[in-house]
C-alpha cells in the first residue's frame, strides 16, 4: 500500500523547527509494510495545503497530514481538507467534551474559546481520540475510496496516534494479501569516503537482485550502507538482506565496524573490556567531544577512567608531560605532540590504553603547511603507539566530529594491529 506524507507548518519551511515528524512517520510506516513514496512540506496556508493534498491523493490515493490542527487561526488543515472533500465542518459534542474534560483534569482553568475550534470535524470523518493532547486525529474518505488522515503536529501526539490508531486501520484497509513489512539493514563504515566506498562496491545490481535497494548515507562519522527489501514477505526479505549484507562485508573490509545503530565508541569500549584494559584520552581541538562519545555509552565506567582537555600548551606541558622541546620544534599540531599526549594521558591516569587528538578545527589558525582541518591522532594499545594524520573538510563542528570518530577508529585499528 502506497501513501504520501504532508507536513504542515511555516516554521518547518523557515527551518526554525526540525521536521522530526517526517522521520518518525517514515519509520513507523515502513515497519508496518506501508510504503511512503513521497513527502512534502507546506506552510500554514489553506490553499497550499489543499493543493498539495489533492496532488497526493491523485497519485497514491492516501495522504497523511501532520500539523495545522491547533486552536489558532493559522491552524487551517481541517478547513483545507474539508473544502477539498466538499464537506462542512461540524462541531462534534463528544470531541468538545473530551477537550473540556482535559482542561479540567489538568487544572488549566477555563478552556479558551479558541480551543473549541479543535472540535470542528469534517462531516463524515472518523475521529481518532488523542489521549496526549486536545486535537483529535481525523480520517476522511471520499466517494472514490481516497483517504486523508489528519494528525496533530506535536511529535508525541502524532506518533501515538499514528502507531496506535492509524497504522492498524491502514493495515486493515490493505488486507492480508500484501507483504507484512518493509525491512532494512544497515552496514556502518568509517575512515573511507562515499566515492571510495562506491568504487569498492562497484555495480550494486549484482548484489541486490530484484527486491532490494541500496542507499548511501554519508555523514561526518562515516558512510552507512542501508539495504532495504521491498515487495517481499518477512522471511524471504530477511534472507535476501542477509545475502546482500554478506556480499557487502568483504567489499567494505576493515572500514566496517558494525550494523544497525552500532556506535563505534561502544565497539572500542567492548574490546578494551574484553582485554581487561582501561582507557584515558587527551584532547585539544575536540575539547571533550571524544570523552563525551565514550561516556554516552552505558557501562563505560568499567573501562574509561577519564580524560584531559589540553587546549592550552601549558596543560599539555604540565598535566600530560609533553616536552617543551617537542612543542618548540614541531608545534602543538604534530605527530610528536600527539604521541606524547597519548603516553602522557595513560601515565597520568593509570590506563593501559589511550587516545590523543590535536588539530586545527578552524575557521582560523591554519597555515600553508598546516591548513584548517589538519588533525594528528595517536592511539596507544598493547604497548604500541600508532599515529594517524588527516586533513578533514568542513566547518569547525564537522572537523571536531570527524576527529573524535577518527580517534575511536584509531584505537580500534591499533587493537586489531596492522590494518
List keywords for this structure.
single chain, 419 residues, alpha/beta, Molybdenum Cofactor Biosythetic Enzyme, Chain A, Alpha-Beta Plaits, Maf protein, 6-stranded mixed sheet, 5-stranded mixed sheet, 17 strands, 41% helix, 24% strand, elongated
Rg calc: 27 Å
Give the biggest beta sheet. 6 strands, mixed
Largest sheet strand order: 2-1-3-8-7-6
| Total number of beta strands | 17
Average pLDDT, to the nearest integer?
94
**CATH architecture name of the largest domain:** 3-Layer(aba) Sandwich
Overall description:
There is one protein chain. The chain is an alpha/beta fold. It is 41% helix and 24% strand. The strands form four sheets. Strands 2-1-3-8-7-6 form a six-stranded mixed sheet, with helices on both faces. A five-stranded mixed sheet has the order 14-13-15-16-17, sandwiched between helices. Strand 16 and strand 17 (384-391) form a beta hairpin. Helix 10 runs parallel beside helix 15. The two termini are 46 Å apart.
